[in-house]
Amino acid sequence: MKRHLSLFLLVALFLAACTSNTQTPTADVTESTSVTTDAPTATPTEEPVTVLNVCTASLPESAFLYDGRNPVAKQNLLTLTQREIFPYAESSHGAALLSETPTQENGGITLQSATVSLGETVVDANGDLVVLKAGVTVRPSGCRSTECAISWDGTEALYLDQMVVRFQLADGLAWSDGAPLIVADLVFSFDLASDPQTPGLQWMESRTAGYTAESDSVVLWTGVPGFTTAEIERLFWQPLPSHLFTADATWESVSADPRWSAEIASLGAYQVGAWTEDSLQLVKNHFNANDDAAPYGEIQIRVIPDLEDALAAFSNGTCDVLDQSYHLERDVETVASLQTDPEATLLVEQTSSWSQLAFGIKPASYDEYYNPIYGDRPDFFGDARTREAIAGCLDREAIQEAVFAGLAELWPSFVSAEETTLSMEEQLIRDPQRAAQLLEAVGWRDHDLNPDTPQQAWYVYGIPTNTTFSINLYVDSSALSQQIVGIVQSSLGECGIEVTPVTLPANQLYAPGPEGLLFGRQFDLALIGWAPLTQIDCALYESNQIPSQDNQWVGTNIAGWSEALYDKACNNASLALPDEMRGALQRAEAHFMSGLPAVPLFSVPEVIAVKESACSAVNDLWDFGIDNPSCP
Fold first, then answer.
1. What's the number of domains the chain is made of?
2. Residue 259: CATH number of its domain
3. Cα-flanking dihedrals φ and ψ of residue 307, to 5°?
């Protein structure tokens, strides 16, 4: 998935049809003399140039992939100047970089048995990068799940699976300056991405044992022993023009090259024509002359920092597109106005960032022992049925409608609705009646038959009798969080759960442990958001991610939830090969839903406004999705 918009087609005609008016000569003729005159020659007329005007809040500083900055404007620029990696029959982006998608069936993905020894870097059975020593748990060669993992004794010969992926370049590809695309461009890109000076985690680079040329058209990715993955697109580094740099070029010298913000070579449908402080001109790359891939003769990207000014320019036709940098999804009134504009279309894409309502299942004070008599918070969430009941009380649909102008998408688990393996029957639904039954089964009672007062614990294991179900909900001070608080409070109140909102500045709420409320595990409920992880998001709630003194309070499992079967299922999904992924994900989702350490809420959408007449072309241009239903 990528970006979303709808645009108006702006056509600029450049005509150079100039004819000179010359005086007709006369000649003296005799009766026997005849004069012939050549027919006039028409001056050719240039073809009209269609121009797409995109408005953005700011331009990127550079088009260099590895400078540590990745704003929306840069993402959009790279989409237009790069090619797709894998070939798709329905793609309108021209030829892909690869001749075929590597699979296990076509031999593009293979496993080889690699000998490993003490002190080598390997990936263990949990998916972590470790130095091999006695006691490390690994999957021996041929073992494809945690069930057959072993603890290495430090002496026996050890063989681990090593994943190899073969990427075959398509024939005849060239850069916009005419230089052929070669495997060296791929290796050059990887070398820069893995340079120690390159900003970022280098998560996949660190799990790569080799990225080498097998031939003039084939690059081989070889993984660190023990590491396997279904995400093969992350094993391919977008090529960079190695012919423009010296063989010993480093990240420091390449990143400082001024051509990255001028006219660097392109592989995509467009190339940079001109780049100034407040505008960027893209022209067709004639080495990628597919008209479907480049429906506009020229794309002008213009900076208008202020949203109100940009909306005025969109209204008067100066802008055909308002890109994601304006964050239209945050402005309910603007979205409503654009939705009623007959000349405008909104293209919406769901990102991989998502929000959730996290349970404080096991506070840090429980780590040594739990005793509410001596001040420990009552164990409100230790019973999974209570967490399920709260999910059944919560009006997630109302939250979805309240935030981002109703454009967000509910998540069924730790993956999106598009990726989930859960059936509709297995997904969360609002069911206050069943929630009440679950709470009663746990031991909560409506002691005064008054729905406006919280329930009391009568027979709840581990909670003193007559304890009221009164909890705090911790949120930051953002407008988004404040929109959600009231819905959570009223939804849970209908089920006899009293919720008191506690609003804190984000830097205080997300402060590191042990002092911080979230990462110090000192909360009841918390509304939090996560950006996508480097691995599958089930890892958020693995047991080894519980922040504690043992890991210097660094971890994402702020709920304190621990479930061995879930850990195994998540590890299997994280290390699954493509043909293993669906089954592994299905098992991980099932364990997540049975334990429910958090209630998944919604993804964060990105919105682009486009003139209706250009919607389909722009949708294809940025690959927002084939047959996007937003386009008329």
1. 3
2. 3.40.190.10
3. -60, -45
> What's the token pair of residue 601?
């809420």
**Is 4 domain-assigned?**
no
400 and 448 share one domain: yes
Number of H helices, E strands in the chain: 14, 21
**Quick one: 178 exposed, middle or buried, by C-beta within 10 A (0-12, 13-18, 19+)?**
exposed
Instruction: Read off the pLDDT of each residue in 256-276 and give the average, rounded to a whole number.
Output: 93
CA distances in angstroms from 460 to 369, 455, 467, 468, listed in the order given:
18, 12, 9, 11
Domain limit, last residue, from 208, 238, 268 = 238
In a domain, residue 104? The reply is no
Indicate whether 255 belongs to any domain: yes
Give 393's DSSP letter: H
Among the listed residues 90, 82, 8, 15, the one whose alpha carbon sits nearest the alpha carbon of residue 52: 8
Say if residue 9's pLDDT is above 50: no
Q: Is residue 327 part of a domain?
A: yes
Does residue 30 or residue 108 have the better pLDDT? Answer: 108
Tokens of 57: 């809040």
Residue with tokens 């620029």: 77
Mean pLDDT on 157-164? 98
Provide the 10 A C-beta neighbour count for residue 429. Answer: 11
User: Strand pairing partners for 218?
Assistant: 168
Asked if residue 270 and residue 338 are part of one domain, the reply reads yes
